[in-house]
Design a protein that fits this description.
The complex is a heterodimer. Chain A is of the alpha+beta class. Chain A is 29% helix and 36% strand. Chain A has a five-stranded antiparallel sheet with strand order 8-5-6-11-10, covered by helices on one side. Chain A has a three-stranded antiparallel sheet with strand order 1-2-7. A two-stranded antiparallel sheet of chain A has the order 3-4. In chain A, strand 3 and strand 4 form a beta hairpin. Chain B is mostly helical. Helix content of chain B is 88%, strand content 4%. In chain B, helix 1 packs across helix 4 and helix 10 runs antiparallel to helix 11. The longest helix of chain B is centred in the N-terminal third of the chain and has 280 residues. Chain B is flat. The chains are: A alpha+beta, B mainly alpha. Chain B: It comes from Pyrocoelia pectoralis. Chain B: One of its GO terms (biological process) is attachment of mitotic spindle microtubules to kinetochore. Chain B: It holds the Pfam family MAD. Chain B: Keywords: Cell cycle, Cell division, Coiled coil, Mitosis, Nucleus.
Amino acid sequence: MAAQKSKSAITVRGSAEIVCEYLDFGINSILFQRGLYPPEDFKTVENYGLPIYMSQNNKIKEFLSSTFCQLKDWLVKRLVDKIALIVTNVKSREVMERWDFIVQYEGDVTNPNQTSDKPLKQIQNEIRDVLKQIASSVAYLPLLDCLCSFDIQLYTKKDIDLPSEWADTHPADIKNAQFVRLRSFSTNIHKMETLVTYKSED
Amino acid sequence: MSTTEAKSIDDTLINMITTLKPIIKSDIKPLECETTLKRRASSTGMFDYITPAKKTKQDLTVEYIGSPREARRLRADLIEARNNVLSLENRIKHMHTVRQETQIMFDAELRSLQHQHEYDRKSITDLEEQLQTIRKRESDLKIESMELKTKYDTLKIDSDKRVEELEKQLANFKANSVIEYDTKNELITNLKSKVLELETTLKTVEEDCVAHKKLSSELEKRLSTKNEVERNLELKDQAWQRVRLELKDLEYIRDNYIEYQQQIKTHQHKLLAYDELEKENQQLKEEMKRLRDAVHNKLLLEEEVYDLRNRLTNYKEQEKKLSALQVAQVQSDLYLNEWRSVARGICETTGSDATLPHLLRSVVEHLQQQELTLTEMKVQLESQLSVSTHEAKVARSELEKCQNLISDYQASDQHKQCLIRRMQKKLLLVSRERDSYRLQLDSYERDLTMTVNTGSAAQGGIQQSQRDRIENLERIVEGYRDMVSKLEADLQKNEPTTNHAENIPIRTEQMSRLQDEIDRLKMDNDHLREQRDNLEIQLEKLSSPGNDTNSGRIVHLAMNPLAEHIQQHDNELELLKETNERLKRKIKHLEEGLEGSKLMDISTNPKDINTLKEQLKSSESQMQRLKEYFKSSMQEFRNVVYMLLGYKIDKNSNSQYKLTSMYAEQQEDQICFQLNSEGALNLLENEFSTTLEDMVDLHLRHQKSIPVFLSAITMDLFNNRTMATKTFEIDDD
């Protein structure tokens, strides 16, 4: 992949790209699994040895690509703490579900030319395991039987230059929440922890 | 015959066989003549005839040796003879072969002949058998023929008898026929005479017939003249009818004319009165206008009156309400004063009424605050109460536990006291025993000193006594040992309790210490519980990481799908609301419109409805008049048609027309026509039309004219009706 600058050495940018790729697959998978968009909008793409449903909706694709473009930049600069996918009921504006992708920076945090020698294959295997968990999350997550939409929130550090199309927002808290911690993976630069919080039914 | 033939054949065969042998012999005979050698050979067969011949030759050569010429000649002769012999031998050989062949042939022939002979013999026997059977048959047949012949003879005799009888009968019949022939001849003559008589009568009748014919022709002539007269009469009748119809028409016209004249006169009168009528009309119109205005005014006034009445009722109600309100006001004033006095009492002021409510409010607020604090305190106290009750419960339970413990301890204490008593007793026993042992020991010592003193003389008796003593002592020692071991066991058994028994004095002390410990532990427990609660709260905060207090910023793309969706949703909602509003307004409008229209109806009612009603009435009356006119004119038209054409035409449904003739014999005699889709009329078959088949044929099928058909029917019916009268007339003539 692009991350491979030299033999099994991953740069910070490469790591950020891996993270973004994971997020792309993960978020698309969530959008499909949680039924936020009709299944005919999705097309299977083989990745990490897993068939992943990728949205063919141009609006979603555009939104995700622009989000990830900015996210990559901030990940490289180590300004992002968390990426949250918020699933909200459109009618009542109630937050139904939140998928947290918590970023932890490992290794020498100050070094901008940090590299990791973790084999790519291993990272991909770890990502595959997380994606499998996401795909199977439908089993325990409550059914979203209302019109829902999603948003991606980035939890950043204070000192960031916010581009014009970005805006501040409020944290999406869920009352009476339950959460499930999924597996995590690490590139030895970025450690991604995935967590799904959902509204408890009772 | 056959036997003879067979015999002859046999003979010939035998002859042939016998003759063959001599023939062969004769054949051989000439050979014998030629050479002896040959004959010998032939007679004897074929064996060894050459060797003797050679011997003879050798004998010859030995005889003739004398002269060389002779010898030469002889040699030549010899050679020749030898050649001859050779040739002859060859011939003999050839002949032998021939003979053998012939012999073979002969044998074959012989065999075949024998075979044939056998065959012939067989056939002969067969034939003989056949012959015998045939002979038998022949004899049978002969017997049969004999029988038949006898039968034939008997039959012939019978038939001859019958023939004779029949011939007799024939003769009788012939005699009868002659008699009958005579009688018939007589009859024929009689009949011939009758025929002649009849012929004469026929002639007379024919003559009569001619006369009758003449008569009939005369009668026919007279009939034709009568018919002509009848026809003339009919024509005249028709003419007369026509004239009568014309007369009727003319009368009708004249009546009409008179009517018209009368009408003209009336119209002239009416015209003269027209001016007056117009004047009257104008006057009436003016009056009408005035009346309409009056009516209009009256309606307006009525409306006003109605309105005022409504108002009056409203006013009355309001007055009632007013009186009620006044009463209420008085009452409330009283209440107010009471309240004020109460308020003053509460506020403890005698200030003006204006400041009173403010003061009261402040007081009330104060009270409310107090109440709030009190309730808070109450809640706190309640919680404290619950905590303390819980604690009390716990303490009580512990107390119970402790009491139980105490009772246990007391029980063990008693037990131990018993034990102690027992031990003391045992101790006494042991000390006694010890004393006894001591005594024994003393006695031993004494004994010992005694023995030492007494010497060996009494050694045997002493030894004996010592032995007894030792045994005794050993027994005592054993018993003692047993006791010791028993006591040890008892001691061991009681050891644990004895330990506690030692603690008895410090029990109360321990109890208090334990109590203290319990209290401390309780304190610790509460403390820990609190801590745990705090930690749980913290954990909850921590466990839902989204709810954590983020020090940084949370950003997102302004144009995210959620925002878009919400925007879309809002837009839709807005749109729906708008449409809803619009629809509501529409419904309202519609309702209002309905009411408005009703109001409009009421408002226009007096103005226009009357005129409209009048218009309606006038148009209705016009309609009625027209209907009546049309009805009368229709009736008239129908009558005229009936009178003119002689048919009453009724229309059925389905564009069927029923024609009833004026001269119909029965009411049911109707002709039905149906107007088909092409606009032509079709005659429908019914009972009456079937009687008019020839007319239908002539006028409809042939001439294709319905009017002609109808007039023909009219004519026919008319003739039928008038025929009776005519005949009567003729009869009268």
